[in-house]
Amino acid sequence: MITIRIQEQNRLVETDRVRKDCWIDARNVDSADMKRLEQEFGIANELLNDIMDADEQARIEKEGAYTALIVRLPVYEESSDVSFFTLPLGIILFSDKIITICQRSSGALEDLSRNRIRGFTIRNKSSFVLNLLGRGAFTFLKGLKELNKRTNIIKEELQKSIKNKELIQLLSIQKSLVYFTTSITTNELLLEKLQKSPLIPFKEDEQDLLEDVVTENKQAIEMANIYSSILTGTMDAFASVISNNLNIVMKRLTIVSIVLMIPTLIYSFYGMNVDLPFQKSPYMAFVITGISLAASITGAIFLNTDRKRPLRP
After folding, report:
1. What integer is the mean pLDDT of 228-241?
2. CB neighbours of 179 closer than 8 A, spacing ≥ 6?
């Protein structure tokens, strides 16, 4: 879907035709949108394919009449196996318009299009890029906090009972953190290029905004690394708990097997077709039963008692 917006009285409003200093917002694009972007706006097919590639890394390049940037933004989709993931966003800067292209809708794009950023303008190309990158870094931080909140909730549930469902949810969160860490890192490389590249000239006051965006992006990287380390340690701890519980269950099953083996051995011995002591006594069945019970109880107590014995050479 392609939406054209212009700025009137510091607010973005939708319009039905392309005007000067407009923002062409293409999200959830289909084949018809791709064809229109290529034919009407002259965007190279190779660049469009790169933007549609979910694994494309952030970069900046000059293509004829426009400058193209590819950044990665966080995307939330509840129906997906991994709710939080990242996708590339293409920013195409023409002299008279701005085009953004993304496979899905991101929180950063929603904030810009719904006038949630104070002082945001689409007439200044460099300011637009900085605001979008800054909102992207903010959205990463917001997503990381949500992932950490979900992790704490799942940990509380796992402390009550360890189930496969919660473990799979932790694995999904771990995947999201990997996506976030990789995407934020590649965005940082793009920001470093923007500080040195002459393709997008920044004014003196915009340099301070660029520094703020770099700082927020570094903070997002640190948070992603911290949360990822905590989650890895948590999953290792629960793996140890599961292994320990399995060992306890196996120990109990072994004790039960040995205890049941004792009366079986005694009864098998007196079931042989040979002459045995006291085999003609009418009370021998009760005596064997008593001996079996006593031996089983003694064996169970002995095997179930955890005692530290001194090691002998």
Report:
1. 83
2. 82, 84, 85, 86
